[in-house]
């Protein structure tokens, strides 16, 4: 989770790792997106063996992750492009749902016409 302001007088659960970034070089939104990517998820989940189904990572393992880190201006460009793609995907999902509803209505209309 990305928190962009100081949370004073808050308690953190023992399993939460707080990471502070060098804002001069790193865009927090970029790191948030990268941490959700398959590239990082595979690094985290690949070596984990669990019997409970709970997957944890400690601070030493976190420091060992290979994170692609382009210059900060490129990080901003990547964020913008990913947001554009996410918007396009959301619009496509809405269009597909609308087309599926239309298909159902047309099938119902054809069935009604054939019966009557």
From TrEMBL:
Gene3D superfamilies: DNA methylase specificity domains (3.90.220.20). One of its GO terms (molecular function) is DNA binding. Transmembrane segments: none annotated. Signal peptide: none annotated. GO terms for biological process: DNA restriction-modification system. InterPro entries: Restrct_endonuc_typeI_TRD_sf, Type-I_RE_S_subunit. Keywords: DNA-binding, Endonuclease, Hydrolase, Nuclease, Restriction system. This is Restriction endonuclease subunit S. It comes from Salmonella enterica (Salmonella choleraesuis). The lineage of its organism: Bacteria, Pseudomonadati, Pseudomonadota, Gammaproteobacteria, Enterobacterales.
């Amino acid at each position: 989770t990305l928190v962009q302001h100081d949370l004073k007088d808050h308690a953190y659960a023992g399993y939460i790792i707080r990471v502070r970034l060098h804002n001069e070089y790193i865009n927090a939104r970029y790191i948030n997106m990268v941490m959700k990517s398959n590239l990082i998820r595979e690094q985290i989940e690949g070596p984990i063996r669990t019997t409970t189904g709970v997957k944890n990572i400690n601070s030493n393992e976190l420091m060992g992750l290979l994170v692609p880190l382009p210059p900060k201006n490129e990080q901003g460009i990547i964020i913008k492009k990913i947001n554009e793609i996410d918007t396009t995907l959301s619009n496509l999902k809405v269009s597909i749902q609308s087309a599926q509803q239309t298909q159902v209505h047309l099938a119902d209309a054809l069935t009604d016409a054939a019966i009557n």
